[in-house]
Amino acid sequence: MITEALENAIDNGASLRVRYFGGSTPGREREIQPISVKDGKVRARCLLSGETKTFVVEKMELVVAGTPSQLASTMPPPVVTYESVDEFFSNQTAALQSLGWVVQREGETISLHRTFKNGKLIQTPDVALRYEAIAYDLVFDGEQVTEANHRERSRPWVVSAKNQTTKTYGDFGKAQITFLEFAKSLSPLGASRNA
């Protein structure tokens, strides 16, 4: 039904009021003007932002006045993200500890550690979330290594994990999601507890 409505809107140059369960605000209503539909995706102009975006058709439904969302109950609940490292740390530490991690924080860095069999902490973290505002190059001048070419990072949030590709983000919320995914998948308690 949604595909047919999108195609009709394209033919007529009309706009549609839809609920979209993707992107950064799942379930949000938006007015779109469809441009094309292909391979389960629709290119449309979002009349709220004025931008042309691509939407996944199966995550979209028409808004019908007085009719509750049919998709809302089938979509996973939105992931809660926090505004600050303080808020994230205080709200997630217990959940991370329940996965078997020793959670440490130093400034804007949160790291997850395992312990040796004797209970002593392994100093190198398995997973880390940190804020690095400045990037620089290390230069050897023949006598010593110095920092050079300091510059502001456009993606200052860094998520690293053992045997994983390090990821960088401009958005703290996206960094939190990746950090928690790594924390679950690499949990010291094993995959059986993470299901």
Q: Which regions have little confidence, pLDDT < 50, spanning 5+ residues? A: 191-195
Count of DSSP E strands? 12
Compressed to H and E, one letter per element, the order equals: HEEEEEHEEEEEEEHH
How many separate structural domains? 2
Report the total helices. Answer: 4
Distance between the termini: 35 Å
Q: Main sheet: which strands, in order across?
A: 4-3-2-1-5
Describe this structure in words.
- This protein has 4 helices and 12 strands; from the N terminus they run H-E-E-E-E-E-H-E-E-E-E-E-E-E-H-H.
- By secondary structure, it is an alpha+beta fold.
- It folds into 2 domains: 2-62, SH3 type barrels (Roll), CATH 2.30.30; 85-194, no CATH class.
- The protein has a 5-stranded antiparallel sheet with strand order 4-3-2-1-5. A 5-stranded antiparallel sheet has the order 6-7-8-11-12, with helices on one face.
- A hairpin with a 5-residue loop joins strand 11 and strand 12 (167-169).
- It is elongated.
- Residues 191-195 have low confidence and may be disordered.
- This is WYL domain-containing protein.
- It comes from Thiobacillus sedimenti.
